[in-house]
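Researcher: Sequence of histidine kinase follows. Predict its structure.
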Amino acid sequence: MNPSSPEGIGTVLLAAGAFQFARRFLDTPTRLPDWEPYFKRGWVLIGLLIGASALFSITLANGWVALGLSLLFVYMLWQLKAFQPSRTVLLAVAPFLLLWILGSFLEYYAPKYYEANDDFIDNSIGFSTIWLGTFLLIASRQKKTLVKQEQERALEAEQRRIIEAKKQELEYLVAERTAEITLQKEELEHALVELKTTQNQLIQSEKMASLGELTAGIAHEIQNPLNFVNNFAEVSIELIDELADEQAKAHRDPELEADLLVDLKQNLQKINHHGGRASSIVKGMLQHSRASTGQREATDLNALCDEYLRLAYHGLRAKDKTFNALFTVDLDANLGQVSVVPQDISRVLLNLFTNAFYAVQQRQKQAGSESGYQPTVRVSTRCAGSEVVIKVIDNGTGMSEEVQQKIFQPFFTTKPTGEGTGLGLSLAYEIITKGHQGSLKVASKEGD
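Model: Prediction complete. Tokens:
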């Protein structure tokens, strides 16, 4: 074969075309990017050689060019051996290239041997061509499978990227929300501190209001024993003057002196009695005003009920001189001493009595002076087994079912603004139920 003949040029073109197809099939621009500049220069050089050979009948070693391209092609496949289709293509072309190189060598350098075995060589090349086509189809399928897998991996990578982005976004949102919650928590803690401070102030205000009512009652109640003390003291002075006059006479009357001494002793006993009464009232006021120790003491509940009932009544009368009411006590003589916290129980009793008198006062104002309504408050004590039952009953305005359900709630009050904090019954409920493990119940009918 003339190396500058069209057949020789066709061999070179066929080898170049096969090489170019292989480059695209194996995606060498991506997998062998460093080779691309040399490939581009090589195509230009080959084109110039083929053109010069065809136009000027220049003898070129086209077979050697084809052989060089084939060896370069094999080397390129070896470089891409990590790519499975490349290994399959290498397995496909290896027999064909070996037989082609062997046939060309024998044709040029051993023509007689070539002619003697021409049929065998042609059949072998034909078989290698079938082998080539079969394995190229396999390589093509492998490439499609790999492309599909790469696309799936790319899709998975994209999904992971999206998930990671979503994760980072969620982490940012969680961090932002956590910061907001932390800020809200700090604000709530600050608000709670302020609320507790306000609550303590309101409780103190309720105690001061209770103390004010107690003080008003004491001012009236203590006046009676003080009047008795003053009156008996004046009479005692007169008796002493009369006794001194009798002792100054020449003829003294022993019987008169004895009577004067008896009267004087009785007056002093009455002064002592009413002084003790005034002292107990002051003592009760001091106990009520001081902070609770929480320590239980043996206490006469009957005396406590009687005393604070009077103090509550006179405390309301100190505000409204026109108010009058009947108050009675029914005290169980067998009650004896009861273990309670006297300061706390006194606050409960004063609150209940004050509310009772307030209720009958309001009904009296609603009824008017000509209705025949008589405000009445009754207090009774009973010993029921291991428990003490104290009942405070009034015939005032009464409460609806709805009000009864809320009566022990903090800050709930039926009084006009400025007349109640809504903490009195709430504190009383806490003292009885939690402080003394008892119960505080209400039974009422509106208007009755």
